């Protein structure tokens, strides 16, 4: 099922962000992201943690960074894929097998995360929209995913 999804589109207020999905790296994580996106789970969800020069994190329906979906957590699918600009990776707690729905998009080189977080995609278009997200932990008026869909 996971290999049938190639692209995730995040529609933000100012346009679309296109993400190439990487089932070759993380088939279970890609399947989960696609499933949640197509169920409408991410629609209206904010980027609750946006750190300049590091990353933008979203995927928590409460907007606090403390929650996820009602689906079971995922086992890690770490790879050697580097955490560089545009890479999409799963957020988790200190437990490597606790990824659920939260994810982050890397602004700059963050290779210190390599082999510790599951890379599941890469932004191919619209990275400037991620760059423009309001900054903060949380931002005063956070940027929002209007709609997310996987194809």
> What is the count of DSSP helices, taking H or I runs of 4+ residues?
2
pLDDT < 50 runs, ≥5 residues = none
Adjacency order of strands in the biggest sheet: 3-4-6-5-7-2-1-8
Strand % is 25-35%
Radius of gyration: 14 Å
Please give the largest β-sheet: 8 strands, antiparallel
DSSP E strands, number = 8
Classification by helices and strands: mainly beta
CATH class (first level) name: Mainly Beta
Average of per-residue pLDDT values: 96
Order of helices and strands: EEHEEEEEHE
Tally of structural domains? 1
Helices and strands in order, then pairings?
Blueprint lengths: L6 E6 L2 E7 L5 H12 L8 E5 L3 E4 L28 E4 L12 E4 L12 E7 L1 H5 L13 E6 L1
Antiparallel strand pairs: 1-2, 1-8, 2-7, 3-4, 4-6, 5-6, 5-7
Q: What can you tell me about this protein's structure?
A:
By secondary structure, this protein is mainly β. The chain has one domain: Beta Barrel (Cyclophilin), CATH 2.40.100. It has 2 helices and 8 strands, in the order ββαβββββαβ. An 8-stranded antiparallel beta sheet has the order 3-4-6-5-7-2-1-8. A hairpin with a 3-residue loop joins strand 3 and strand 4. The longest helix has 12 residues. It is globular, with a radius of gyration of 14 Å. The mean pLDDT is 96.
In short:
By secondary structure, the protein is mainly beta. The chain has helices at residues 27-38, 127-131; strands at residues 7-12, 15-21, 47-51, 55-58, 87-90, 103-106, 119-125, 145-150.
What attributes characterize this protein structure?
151 residues, globular, Cyclophilin, mainly beta
């Amino acid at each position: 099922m996971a290999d049938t999804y190639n692209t995730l589109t995040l529609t933000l207020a100012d346009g679309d962000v296109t993400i190439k999905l990487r089932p070759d790296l993380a088939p279970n994580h890609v399947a989960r992201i696609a499933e949640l996106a197509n169920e409408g789970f991410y629609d209206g969800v904010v980027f609750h943690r946006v750190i300049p020069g590091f990353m933008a994190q979203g995927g928590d329906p409460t907007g606090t960074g403390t929650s996820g979906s009602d689906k079971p957590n995922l086992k890690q699918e770490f790879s050697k894929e580097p955490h560089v600009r545009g890479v999409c990776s799963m957020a988790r707690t200190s437990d490597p097998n606790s990824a659920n729905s939260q994810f982050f998009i890397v602004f700059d080189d963050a290779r210190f995360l390599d082999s510790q977080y599951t890379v599941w995609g890469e932004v191919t278009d619209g990275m400037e929209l991620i760059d423009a997200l309001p900054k903060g932990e949380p931002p005063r008026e956070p940027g929002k995913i209007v709609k997310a869909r996987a194809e």
